[in-house]
Write a structure and sequence with these properties.
By secondary structure, this protein is mostly beta strands. The chain has eight helices and 35 strands. Strand 16 and strand 17 form a beta hairpin. The longest helix is centred in the last third of the chain and has 16 residues, at 353-368. The termini are far apart.
């Protein structure tokens, strides 16, 4: 092999000087290298990846979809010979073999295999391993779950649920922040949209937004380091979303735009169903030291319509110092929300409990300043459904975790039909990782639901809280009542349906719930004027 493998000392020096690229991604490339520098995890193989949903619902299917992805076989041709499946439940174990016999030389390949799990009792976690047998240049090889070097090969975990998520029929759950195969560059890629739809359905979701990076959507189809003014990737993503969009399951095209905040630093904005491409490559690292934003959040205010949505992407996440210096990345500020006319904040971006609690606290501080912002939950998953594989140290180390997997946390709206744009704009929205919680207020025989405004006075509280075997019993149910005159939010935990509440002149009410097995739900507010 030409070149040399770099040492840890070189990596330390590299990071000290803040020479980095945006590497918090999924499905990391294992054969990308600089001219004379080869990553420690470099392999002359395509990426070979198995994946499956974190939940499979019997009411939807008795079979679990197992996704197999092969990336860049056009560079490293491969023959997939077979896959051995091992499924272990509490009192049962099953094995099976899938004959493949596939010779691949294309850039991206995916196939879903359906494995019958009907013999396993429902409402339990299953441990599933996929052994992939393949051949490179006549040499037989085996990979467990993936062929990434130095990543622990833990079994996938999938909850085999008997019933649907405990949501009423007029509530629709989905992931608003997801990266597909159209996010593809030197260090990351996602999964195809059709496979994502299959996974999402088995998990109990009803919709998702495809929000690929603006700095990937403007690339040449054959060279991610060059731009193509004809935007073939953006156009193909739009077409794929329309092709997979169905009445009972919605797939809507979007874009994660790199755009300038009031300090002219790069922040990320989710632009959903906007008819035109919004350029943004300031933090792409495509051209070193050319990192100023191409557009400003101020321009977004004039683009709002009833047919699109603009959402602040992970606005409370701390930006690493290296990215601040090399990529000119910045933070969202209150004036940015106002400049852009933003009302929706995707404050939950992973399943990290500390991050979630911190984000809810920061959102609460905005609410107490009389700012009417609505929270969203997504995962920023790059084609990850059960586990995410990432670069931990550039050119040195990979790792896997379940931090940001598709549909782990989701956003749900209440509407008569599965119409995400209309339903979300009605603002009756909650965020959850599975359980359900909603509430309304009754005043003078009139109902006021989440997102609406009520006048002060005496009201009755009506709430609906549901959980499932996956999440266990409800352990805490809270009502938060805020008085914006005193800037104080009080928590009430001893709640009864139809209980009387006297509302102050100006404030809001919101609710939250936790369960014994890690279930969490947060509602958006009802406002008091």
């Amino acid at each position: 092999m030409e070149g040399f493998f770099i040492t840890m000392e070189f990596i330390d020096k590299l990071l000290t000087n803040f020479i980095s690229i945006p590497i918090l991604v999924g499905y990391a490339e294992i054969h990308y290298h600089l001219k004379f520098l080869y990553p420690r995890y470099f392999r002359k193989e395509p990426e070979i990846i198995a994946d499956l949903p974190r939940r499979c619902i019997q009411e939807r299917s008795s079979k679990i979809p197992i996704l197999l992805i092969v990336k860049d076989a056009n560079i490293f041709p491969v023959k997939l010979k077979s896959a051995n499946i091992l499924i272990i439940g509490k009192s049962r174990e099953e094995t099976g073999k899938i004959e493949l016999d596939l010779k691949l030389n294309n850039k991206y390949f995916s196939k879903i295999f359906y494995v019958d799990i009907s013999k396993f009792k429902t409402d339990q976690w299953l441990n599933i391993s996929v052994e992939i047998n393949y051949q490179i240049k006549g040499r037989n090889k085996t990979a467990i779950n993936d062929n990434y070097p130095a990543i622990a090969k833990k079994p996938f975990r999938c909850f085999w649920a008997e019933k649907e998520l405990p949501f009423p029929k007029d509530w629709y759950c989905g992931d608003p922040h997801y990266h597909s195969i159209h996010t593809s560059d030197q260090v990351e890629f996602g999964a195809d949209i059709f496979s994502t739809k299959i996974m999402a359905k088995s998990m109990g979701l009803d919709w998702f937004f495809v929000t690929d990076h603006s700095y990937d959507l403007d690339d040449d189809e054959n060279d991610c380091t060059r731009n193509d003014p004809e935007l073939p990737i953006w156009k193909k993503m739009q077409q794929n979303c329309k092709k997979n969009d169905e009445k009972d399951f919605r797939v809507i095209a979007g874009e994660e735009v790199s755009i300038g905040n009031w300090e002219n630093k790069n922040v990320h904005l989710l632009a959903i169903n906007h008819p035109h491409f919004i350029a943004g490559s300031g933090d792409s690292a495509e051209k070193w030291f050319r990192n100023k934003p191409q557009n400003s959040l101020k321009m977004i205010k004039r683009l709002h319509s009833e047919n699109n949505l603009f959402i602040a992407a992970h606005p409370f996440e701390n930006v690493p110092r290296a990215q601040k210096l090399t990529l000119r990345r910045g933070q969202w500020h209150s004036r940015d929300y106002e400049n852009a006319g933003i009302k929706f904040l995707q404050v939950i971006n992973s399943n990290e409990i500390n991050d979630i609690q911190n984000s809810i606290e920061r959102w609460t501080k905005l609410l107490l300043q009389d700012k009417k912002y609505y929270i969203f939950a997504g995962n920023d998953a790059h084609g990850n459904f059960n586990v995410m594989r990432q670069i931990k140290s550039p050119f040195w180390k990979l790792f896997s975790s379940c931090k940001q997997t598709f549909g782990n946390f989701f956003t749900a709206f209440n509407h008569s039909e599965n119409e995400p744009l209309t339903g979300i704009q009605n603002k009756n929205i909650i965020v959850s990782n599975g359980p359900f919680l909603s509430f309304k207020l009754i005043k003078d025989k009139q109902e006021f639901r989440i997102g609406s405004t009520i006048h002060s006075g005496s009201v009755a509280l009506i709430f609906d809280a549901k959980t499932s075997p996956e999440f266990g019993e409800i352990v805490e149910l809270n009502l938060f009542i805020a008085d914006l005159t005193s800037k104080v939010e009080r928590k009430f935990s001893k709640l009864e349906n139809s209980m009387a509440i006297v509302l102050s002149n100006k404030g809001y009410l919101r609710m939250s719930m936790t369960t014994e097995k890690g279930g969490m739900v947060y509602t958006n507010p009802i406002w008091v004027e």
